[in-house]
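Repro:
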Amino acid sequence: FFLCYIFFFIYHQIMEPLVLLISRIIGLYIYLLITQAILSWLIAFGIINTQSSFVNMVGNFLYKITEPLLRPIRKLLPDFEGIDISPVILILILWFINDSLLKYAA
């Protein structure tokens, strides 16, 4: 009985911070998705100059970070005449995963 209690205590001490870290990473990734979507709208409407090295650097960073998870979703979705809803679907999936993790940790 004592060994079982020690194992549970160690497991809980390791898993709770790990789940919270994963939850915060998911939250940060959601913010990156929103930033990438807003930046793409600003570029599409010609509000931001893409010739700027800073804008180009930020845009490339956001594209490289978000595209690996968005690409499979885009392949599954039908064409909506230029409207990309894959970030919204990915955010909903990430919210579901995040809520599930937090319920597991509680």
